[in-house]
Structures are given as structure tokens and as C-alpha cells.
Amino acid sequence: MSHQTSPIEISWFGALCDDDYEQLGVPQANLRSSWLHCSEIVKNADQLGFDNILLPSGYELGIDTISFASSIAPQVQHMKMLTAVRVGENWVPQLARQLATLNQVMHGRLAINIISSEMPGETLDGPSRYRRTTETMRALRTLLNGERLDIDGEFISLHLDAPRICKEMAPSPAFYFGGLSDEARETAAMDADVYLMWPDTEEEISRIIDDVNARSARYGRTLKFGYRVHVVVRETEEEARNAAAHLISAVDTATGDAIRSRSLDSTSVGVKRQAELRDAASDDGFIEQSLWTGIGKARSGCGAAIVGTPAQVVEKIRRYQSMGIEAFIFSGYPHVAEAKRFAELVLPHLSHGPLSSN
User: Fold this and answer.
1) Are the CB atoms for 181 and 269 separated by under 8 Å?
2) What is the pLDDT of residues 173-214, one digit of tens each?
3) Is 227 helix (H, G, I), strand (E, B) or coil?
4) Which of 341, 255, 259, 336 is nearest to 303 (CA)?
5) Is residue 138 part of a domain?
6) What is the pTM of this model?
7) What is the CATH number of the domain that holds 104?
8) Which domain holds residue 51?
């Protein structure tokens, strides 16, 4: 395996949004989103040596992320928790207090995944939604930095001092943020710390990184880059490909379409790009070496997986790292079993640790 020069952040996925299966599209009661099952995923990831874990958020599909994070935090001994917040659903002063308190429980190991969301039942066009997201991120960071907030914006008008818990826990945890549209990239360039990407070809990832770097430079800022992708790793390539095929073997076209259409982000630019990758892939679903798009047939959002032997998976990760990606968020099915497999077969070959703040 090739040499890796600097550590990267390796995160696992908390599957709070009813996204855990042995076969995609075949629900199992014991793998549904719940306190019992999701806490098992988190505790295993912590014990296995992952640096961080993404706790996703979805209105219809899962349990409340901040409540879950607050409950599991005292049991997390080592890793960070990348806690997702849907900005359209929260009042900023209350959210700041919640997150600062959670960060105290986590001994400063909290990270925040900002989701540019609508209110449940609300319809807001993309440009307006991202303008609200920008206002929310700036107001939230101001309070989490322990500073006075004075804002009269299009969506938020507030004049107040930061609460004591925010002052005590300042500075703000890092903001991770993703989105492929022009508005999303501009929001990230202005206000995110880590720009998250879904799977794509190496050529396209390089273009996205160059574009977001150019945008952030215009604001005098520098971002870090993260990559969210599934993984299927086995001792041999044949075993890995067979395991990948097994994941989607129970899903026909109609079922896959129904699964994807239920997602609130099913019409986003990023989701459309995942569909384009599937359409451009070879007959076996691979769009390039080790990157398999078949998993997107049965889920919305992140729609590709790194599939291969430990050496192939490590090599793919290092190729991404050479392009400037410093943080990785992996997931695999079922999540506890694949986390153990990844920790055994891949983690020992990677120099990794929590992503440092800007």
C-alpha cells in the first residue's frame, strides 16, 4: 500500500434516518432508526477508533438528532460527533444554547453539519432558502463564539448578547456544509469551515474543489474539504463485488424510484448529479476504478460506494486525499457490521485523527 503523508479525519455514519439494511429496500425492525439501534452504531464506532460520526437529520424518516446526540454524548469517550441541524426548523438563540450545552457534554468534541432546510410543510425556492441559511449560519456562529448578535436581515432580526454557556464554550464548533448548486457553493464559500461532497468522478471532484476554493478566496477565506461515500470492503475483489450486488438484489426499478422520491432532497442538484453518474456508469455500475454507483438505485442522496479489497479502498482514499480532501464520512450496510470490517481491514493502513479547526 502506498505511503500517506498526513492524517485525515475518518468518520462513520449514524443512520438516524431509517437508512440501515442488510439488503436495501427490505426493512428489518431491528435495523430501524431507534435509540437502541442507533446508539449501538455510535458506541461501536467510538470503540473501533473512528474520529467522528455523522448524526444525520430528517423530518419524516428518523428520530430527533439533537435529542439523540444529547442522550448518547456521555457515552462517547473518544470521537467527535458531527451533529446535523436543519436550519429552517430552529430558532437561532435556542439552537445556540442547545449546541453549546451539547459541546460542553462532549468536552469540546462537537462538530455541526448545517443542512439548508425548509420548515416541514414549507415551500421555499432555492435562492431564498440559501439566503436564510446564510443568515442563520452567521447568527449561530456569532452566538457560539460568545459574541453579541446584532442582525436585521431578510429572515432574522435579533439584538441580544450571547448566553453564558456560549461564552464558556467559545469558539464555535466547525460548520460542515454540503450542496452542489451554485447557491450552495457560494454559501459554503462565505460561511462553512468544511465543504462536504457526495461521490463523483475524480475529474469532477477536482473541478468542484477548484471552484469552491476560488469562491472562498474572494471572501478571504480558506475551506477544508470532506467526502461522504459508502464503502464495501472484503478480502478479495470478487467478494466485495458480490457483497455490493447482494445489497441491491432485492430492489427493482419501481421500488428504487419510490424510495428515492420519498426523500425531501429528491429534486436537488446533488441528487440529480448522482442519477447522472448511474446513467453514465458501465454495465456493472462502476463509473471509474473502485467507485460503484449501483447503491444509488435504492436510496436518495449519496449514491455511490468505494468497492474493493482493503488495498483498493485505501488506494482510492489516498487518491482523494492527494486532491485535497481531509475528511471522510463512510457508511456501509448493515452499519455495525461494516464498521467493524472497515476498522479491521482499512483503518490500520490510514494515518487519521480528528480534523483540526481553522
Assistant:
1) yes
2) 999 999 999 999 999 999 999 999 999 999 999 999 999 999
3) strand
4) 259
5) yes
6) 0.94
7) 3.20.20.30
8) 9-230+325-349
